Amino acid sequence: MDTYDSLLAAITPTSGETREVRDPATDELIGTAPVQDVADLESAIDRAEAAQKSWAALGDAERSAYLHKAADAIKAAAEPLAELLSREQGKPLNGPNARFEVGGCEVWTRTAADTPLPVEVVIDDESGYAEMHYRPIGVVGAISPWNWPMMISIWQIAPSLRMGNTVVIKPAETTTLSVLALVTVMNQVLPEGVLNIVTGPGRTVGDALTRSPKIGKIMFTGSTPVGKRIIEASAGNVTRLTLELGGNDAGIVLPDADPAAIAEDLFWGGFINTGQTCAALKRLYVHDSIYDDVVKHLVEFAKNVPMGVGLDENNVLGPLQNRAQFDVVDGLVKAAKESGATVALGGDPDYDAPGNFYPTTIVTDIDPHNPLVVEEQFGPALPIIRYSDLDEAVALANELEVGLGSSVWSSDRSKALAVASRLQAGTTWINSHGGLHPMVPFGGAKQSGYGREFGVMGLKAVAEPHVISG
């Protein structure tokens, strides 16, 4: 599987129900994806359950060694994986996109393998002695999204395997091939039954996965409404959950910020992956004294960032992954225009052109309660809200029911930290937005979910704490 053609051949179904997969940039046929059902899911769960005890019995060091072998396999297949990801998801090869994502899969797999998690001595004095151990939960059910299909799958798979669990993963219906290819590459080196994939509709296969009494843990990245349905579906089995749900991240630019210096980082905070990122900057509050300058510099940078077909090495922005998301973005921008907001850049898609391309769009002088501000657009349209009172800006940033990420932009770190401490979010970045590190815990506040991924906390989240006392 060292070429695109050999990788595609390895995952092309030879029997059963299939569906066509088309490039969201060109509408060209890429290939066919399997469409499986609940019976296929149950078989996969049974395989994972049968393999789990022997996988756990290998011990921590040997499981970590297997993860490094899986990372080596990902590295060896990196270019065909990136090409397939670009064709199916739409993101370009270059920039913080397809090659970046595949590279992240390797890095996160190695980090999960190498992060120490020794036995913790909780108490050791005249009152007694107690140790905290972390045991496998059993079978982990993973449900991954379409925006970062490979990397988020790895965030679910790698720590789960490290801790002695086996995995059944269901990818998003619109990025099936990408995750199927990743799993196929990893399964070249992993023991049989340890990592399993089932494709199919969320309303049947996904629902059955969350309801299965054989699943000990569900990891889900996706929308808040679907997350709520998973909570309900899994309640009867008291299934452990990690939910990374929707966000509508706010950024606050303080009056002492340098508009020219922050423009590039503001852009990538909002438009990475063409805005299709849960923890992207989705609403920006800028102090009145520098509002016009921030808009000017951001527009100047944004208008020169190339958007187009992902396989063109020059492009770093791509299409929306699916037409439904295009329609969401288009509808919100249209409503903003009709409300009297100003479109400083973009907002004029070519509806007759091939692909789901929505131009980079910056909307200014917009009411803070306009739908484009308070509803997650998940695309390349950034509203910039003018403020004069910092307390009001903080209140607006905090008033929504979601709280995944946030950011503060300032030339004075102490001032930025003071504002950051007032924001309700799982992460607040200073003078950047959305950057993740495999050792830094990540997750949401409020209705952006619960549980944390990455690092030591991420390993503990896919394990059962076991106190041995005495």
Automatic annotation (TrEMBL):
Where's the Aldehyde dehydrogenase domain?
14-464
Listed EC numbers = 1.2.1.39
Q: Name one GO molecular function term.
A: phenylacetaldehyde dehydrogenase (NAD+) activity
Give the domain of life: Bacteria
Instruction: Please give the start and end residues of each transmembrane region.
Output: none
Xref: Pfam families: Aldedh
Q: Active-site residues?
A: E244
InterPro entries per the record? Answer: Ald_DH_CS_CYS (IPR016160), Ald_DH_CS_GLU (IPR029510), Aldehyde_DH_dom (IPR015590), LUC3-like (IPR044086)
Task: Keywords in alphabetical order, please.
Answer: Oxidoreductase
> What PANTHER family does this protein's entry cite?
ALDEHYDE DEHYDROGENASE-RELATED
Family assignment? Answer: Belongs to the aldehyde dehydrogenase family.
Name recorded for this polypeptide: Phenylacetaldehyde dehydrogenase
Organism, as annotated: Leucobacter soli
